[in-house]
Design goal:
- It is a single chain.
- This protein folds into two domains: about 1-210, Spore Coat Polysaccharide Biosynthesis Protein SpsA, Chain A (Alpha-Beta Complex); about 220-300, no CATH class.
- Helix content is about 45%, strand content about 15%.
- The protein contains eleven helices and nine strands.
- It has helices spanning about 15-20, 45-50, 70-75, 100-110, 145-150, 165-175, 185-195, 220-240, 245-260, 270-280, 285-300, and strands at about 1-10, 30-35, 55-60, 85-90, 95, 115-125, 140, 165, 200-210.
- Helix 9 packs antiparallel against helix 10 (about 270-280) and helix 10 packs antiparallel against helix 11.
- The radius of gyration is 20 Å and the shape is globular.
Length: about 300
């Protein structure tokens, strides 16, 4: 069984999310809505769709999303029962009418490939439901490291809503609590997948909304997003040994250098630590290039 978790805060597009769920051709899912003490209550919509969905709603009286958004995700998951699979759907995102059916149609193959993470094709939409991107598709089976690097190289995209993941791996790892939960989903797919491939279903689409009401569309939070990026890159390059290949690790290390330069936190011990990471992957020359860049950034302000 599948649990669809909706961490609710914004009413503006919420009915469109519920409509898409109510017209699914396969109704083998439960919906759990966790209200993060939102300024506008969804109770009228909850009542309207309670007869059309297996729907469970709880209002939390302390707003947690503004402090630690991933913790709000986790307490919303805590509302669910014993469903084997979980999906966290944004309160402004929309799914194809056959998305749940396509998941179950592929479930035996998903299990045969031992995949713990499933993803769907995605399209970005604006606040008028207009498509503002192409359809992003993925290889049927792909290592999480390669999937992230395609996103890093801007030939793909990824966010929370278009993924389904097993409860077992969620219970094992949870989410990394980065600022604004930015990069927390990227880290989750690396953790949740392990050495098992991510399984892609490209025949169904998640329409991911981008507007000034959500974190992705806003521009007043860039410093927080940059801080989250620093923490994510530290986790995947410095403190943990994910299965990126040599060239991928070098790209991520250089990117980390750029981020700490932008944040103006170039400490000697940090630079040396990154240099030794270059050495560890057999990239002495690029390690020296990194040292030179950081030296210039610190002394010349470039």
């Amino acid at each position: 069984m599948l649990a669809i978790i909706i961490p609710y805060y914004k009413l503006t597009f919420f009915e469109r999310t519920l409509i898409a769920l109510s017209i699914q051709t396969d109704k083998r899912f439960n919906v759990y809505i966790g209200d993060d003490n939102a300024p506008k209550s969804p109770k009228d919509l909850i009542e309207k769709y309670s007869g059309k969905l297996n729907l469970y709603y709880k209002k939390f009286h302390n707003n947690l999303g503004s402090i630690a958004l991933t913790k709000h995700w986790e307490r919303c998951i805590g509302l669910s029962k014993d469903e084997e699979w979980l999906m966290i759907l944004g309160d402004d995102d929309v799914i194809d009418t056959t998305l749940i059916a396509s998941f179950y149609e592929n479930l035996n193959d998903i299990k045969m490939n031992k995949s713990n993470v499933v993803r769907f094709a995605s399209v970005i939409i604006d606040d008028k439901d207009k498509k503002i991107s192409e359809k992003f598709e993925h290889p049927k089976l792909e290592q999480a490291t390669d999937a992230y690097m395609r996103k890093f190289n801007e030939v793909s995209r990824s966010s929370l809503s278009e993924h389904i993941f097993s409860r077992t791996v969620f219970n094992k790892y949870g989410f990394s609590n980065y600022s604004l939960a930015w990069y927390s989903d990227d880290k989750a797919w690396l953790d949740f997948s392990g050495i098992k491939p991510i399984y892609a279903i490209n025949c169904a689409i998640v329409y991911v909304r981008r507007s000034l009401e959500n974190i992705s569309g806003r521009k007043d939070n860039l410093s927080e997003k940059l801080q989250a990026k620093k923490e994510f890159l530290e986790d995947v390059t410095i403190y943990n040994n994910y299965a990126f290949n040599k060239s991928q690790k070098e790209l991520l290390l250089f990117e980390y250098g750029l981020v700490i330069k932008q944040l103006n936190i170039i400490a000697f011990n940090r630079v040396i630590l990154v240099f030794w990471k270059f050495i560890a992957v057999g990239a002495l020359y690029n390690g020296l290039r990194f040292i030179r860049r950081m030296y210039r950034a610190k002394l010349l302000g470039k």
